[in-house]
Amino acid sequence: MEQYLRETQMLDYSNKSIQELIEKRGWRNLDEYQRLKAIYNYIRDEILFGYNIDDCIPASKVLADGYGQCNTKGTLFMALLRSCGIPCRVHGFTIDKKLQEGAMTGFVYRNAPQNIFHSWVEVYFEGIWYELEAFILDRAYLEKLQEMNLDCSGAFCGYGVAVTDFRNPVIDFDRNNTYIQSEGINQDFGIYDCPDELLKEHHQEMTALKAFAYRNLGRHLMNRNVRKIRN
Fold this sequence. Notes:
Layout: H1 16-25, H2 32-45, E1 48-49, H3 59-65, E2 67-68, H4 70-83, E3 88-96, H5 106-111, E4 115-125, E5 128-132, H6 139-148, E6 156-158, E7 161-163, E8 185-192, H7 195-201, H8 208-230
Parallel strand pairs: 1-2
Antiparallel strand pairs: 3-4, 3-8, 4-5, 6-7
Helix pairs in contact: 2-4, 3-4, 6-8
InterPro entries: Papain-like_cys_pep_sf, Transglutaminase-like
Organism: Pseudobutyrivibrio xylanivorans
Pfam families: Transglut_core
């Protein structure tokens, strides 16, 4: 299990801001179940859903941003878990861009790659590896989406969601897997010890021009769309 607890360049949990957060929240004083649940809820609801400049940013940068998506929130989640003695790893995928429609709109959506790089975190607890994905969307954002789509009682795809039961998605951890985008997965890259290793082999495929446009314009428009929905 040692490899699932080690610090890496991206999982920079010795960073002062990360250690101060852990101490302030008192997570190390909790039993392992409550510790895992508290960190999971923090990542889901207090690190808001949004789009960072790059998937490769370290956990400390995600914390400083205060927002993230599947890959970046996952990086911070893993750093906090490992610093608190909970083993974890990362599973890489791609998802169909249909899942992002609504968060992405107009020319941003039209020019986005068909396959969007995606990951979830797998956590080892009580002898079981749990697949945790539903930390991606903060509860406030998801509840507003549900209010906007009151007529939807089954499957839903869009705005960062891909689930079979939109009214009752499994987003709370209670010794169970949690999912919020898994129905959009179209390619599986397998399991890696850390995001650093995953991103050496797989990453978001796009031209340099599109990457520049995303960093400097596209993600800001996407974040504006997300804020409008949440607020």
